[in-house]
Amino acid sequence: DITILKSGPLGGDQQIGSRIVEGEIDYLFFFTDPMTLQPHDTDVKALTRLAGVENIVFCCNRSTADHIITSPLFTDPTYERIHPDYTNYTQRFENKGIISEAVEQVKKRRNKSENNISK
């Protein structure tokens, strides 16, 4: 399916980003004029980053598009991209108690060392 969204500066980049995160996009063909400054350059960079994070096929020029479209994987119904597992990253703050305990232990050791030095 091909879906046409809004222009980038009008929120189209965010629409694409949202669809990437929701797993609705497997291939992104995103063409810009490389000789023209983009008013939404940071949004374009964010899309590039999201494509890498979500491991989707991303192309920004004709040569890459030609290679993707002619690849046997492009039409292979059994091909599935690898979805990265970010469980450890998303749960990194769940062990905050362990970190707090470690910080407290370091503080106690410092206080003990300072008390021994001052005696």
UniProtKB/TrEMBL annotation:
Its EC number is 4.2.3.3. GO terms for cellular component: cytosol. InterPro entries: Methylgl_synth, Methylglyoxal_synth_AS, MGS-like_dom, MGS-like_dom_sf. Gene3D superfamilies: Methylglyoxal synthase-like domain (3.40.50.1380). Belongs to the methylglyoxal synthase family. PROSITE patterns: METHYLGLYOXAL_SYNTH, MGS. SUPFAM superfamilies: Methylglyoxal synthase-like (SSF52335). This is Methylglyoxal synthase. It holds the Pfam family MGS. The lineage of its organism: Bacteria, Pseudomonadati, Bacteroidota, Bacteroidia, Bacteroidales. Keywords: Lyase. GO terms for biological process: methylglyoxal biosynthetic process. It comes from the Bacteria. It comes from Phocaeicola vulgatus (Bacteroides vulgatus). One of its GO terms (molecular function) is methylglyoxal synthase activity. The keyword Transferase does not apply. It is an enzyme of class 4 (lyase). Residues 1-119 form the MGS-like domain.
